[in-house]
Automatic annotation (TrEMBL), chain A:
Residues 1-26 form the signal peptide. Pfam families: Peripla_BP_4. GO terms for molecular function: carbohydrate binding. One of its GO terms (cellular component) is outer membrane-bounded periplasmic space. Residues 32-288 form the Periplasmic binding protein domain. It comes from the Bacteria. It comes from Primorskyibacter sedentarius. Keywords: Signal. The keyword Mitochondrion does not apply. This is Rhamnose-binding protein. GO terms for biological process: rhamnose transmembrane transport. Its main location: periplasm. The keyword Signal applies.
TrEMBL record, chain B:
CDD domains: TM_PBP1_transp_AraH_like. This is Rhamnose ABC transporter membrane protein. GO terms for molecular function: transmembrane transporter activity. It comes from Primorskyibacter sedentarius. It is a multi-pass membrane protein. It is found in: Cell membrane. One of its GO terms (cellular component) is plasma membrane. The chain crosses the membrane at residues 12-28, 48-73, 85-111, 117-137, 158-181, 212-230, 251-279, 291-311. Keywords: Cell membrane, Membrane, Transmembrane, Transmembrane helix. It holds the Pfam family BPD_transp_2.
Amino acid sequence: MKRRNFTKLALGLSLGASLMGTSAMAQDNMRIALVVKALGIGFFEAAHKGAEEAAAELGNVEIIYTGPTDTTAEGQIEVINSLIAQGVDAIAVSSNDTDALVPTLKKAMQRGITVISWDSGVAEEGRQMHLNPSSNPLIGNMIIKLAADHLPDGGQVALLSATTTSTNQNIWIEEMNKVMANYPGIEVVSTVYGDDLADKSYREAQGLMQSYPDLDAIIAPTSVGIVAAAQAVEDAGKIGEVNVTGLGLPSEMAGAIESGASKSFAIWNPIDLGYSAAMIAHALAAGEATAEPGAEISIGRMGTITLDETNSAAMADPFVYDSSNIDEFKSIF
Amino acid sequence: MLQRLITSREALLLGAIAVLLALISTRFPGFVTPSNLADVFNDTSPLILLAIGQMIVILTKCIDLSVAANLALTGMVVSMLNLAFPGLPVALILVVAITLGALMGMFNGILVWKLDIPPIVVTLGTMTIFRGIIFLISDGKWVNSHEMSPAFKAFPRFELLGLPMLSWTAILAVIVFTIVMSRTTLGRAAYAVGGNPHAATYTGIEVGRTQFWAFTISGALAGLTGYLWVSRYAVAYVDIAGGFELDVVAACVIGGISIAGGIGSVGGALLGALFLGVIKNALPVINVSPFWQLAISGGAIIIAVAVNARASRTKGRIILKSAEHAA
């Protein structure tokens, strides 16, 4: 009873302090709604698993896993309206539209509900903070690290990107170049573009192996490219000589890991993402942290995040998948 | 006779390919080794198969823009079939692919034949419809390498006399359709319909029916290529072979097939496809900036077409020159 009152008080204080109107909730358990793009998607089911893990760790937290049946902003607005009516304590949303959800989420915040976005963000005015799975510098570092980890004596690596104008690819490559000094002996011999087409990526990978007979690794930070490059390496009989790595999805890369064409690759871990989103939502709703630029929020086993000037934060390095964990994840996403 | 041989489209194109190969070998000598040339041919095989089908359609004054979408839909269907029934023999999958592709071609053909809708409109529509259907049946999901059965992936890679089955399929298609186009009524009818539709009608050839069969052949070849494509790249998703229809039409145009219909040959389609295939395979190895690659591809197409157009221009004789001067 005492504890309940304390929670109530803490909630009341935090809400009062942030001038967010009246307290609509204050039940036995803190109720955190995890709103996903659509139900039935393996990636989000895994995030749900992570959120439940956080709830178990925190105690007295109930996770409401919900979302529309198809990936529409309208569906999410309906879901969020019903969550507001239920008076949940916090909403953590992976949105289908940056702007369309803003009015509804503003309404939720006016009712004293903590609102954060994760994975796919909403505009700044529609949330208190946004959690990115990773950040460009972390990704840039990870892609070269993946290749370098298997090349202790150095070697030649080549990049297989999507299109020449693909913004995220170019930023990641730029960030990678910034940290090249940390990987002595690793030489990036070429950057080619597969245009995110399976056939062109395959041909470019073949070309790389012809032009650079001593090539040790192909880094493809694109899901179409990495799969095509792995197939090209397999067909050329160069498994073991050329390691294909980069960013890909476990379900799409399972074959390449199995054949050995790829030793490891990376992408966000949806379990960690759901876990962190629930941790942050709890911290904000319980008043343990405030969402303001520069604020540091502890996210349990994932460490601490720091909010930037747009109140967004990066969770962690992309998660590395290899033969030890691919079977667990290939059915998830 | 020699004069005719030298100025024939095919000979000119063959010369152009030889010059191209010579130029490439100055920058990357490994490109012209027999094993690499065999690889290039293998890589170009899907384009050759589609270009043959497209050639027949273009001969009859039509165009088929739905080939790449047909390929992608058939590829997705056979991949999902393989996923559901991994034990299905490859022979049956080939039959399903060809039949499904032919049905889609027939759908185009019926619309052109019976409803008299311009082919470019029909196939532009079916192109989008086919892509949409892929999304509907797959829910936007991929069929991945580890989900396909080993036999399903092995067929195009199976080597016979040093060449993979993918290449043999293209060679077989070239032989079969060379015979079809020159020795059968359907083949001759295609030329007649494209060359002079009115005259063809007077001789008892039904224009619409010939076009219908042309679309059916193009569809069947696209379906066959669909299976070969997904098994070769070991992945099937909505956007595979996106924009490939333009490569196919470009291969035909380079191969000297007249967009106005009636002029063209299987050999031309083959060489046109090879010309594009050599460029596509050479650009990654000759160390040209990717920003230039598209421009080079496009430039090569325009040059090839310009050469072709000049070569095919029939020289008219000016008669009554004196009368002109007098006037």
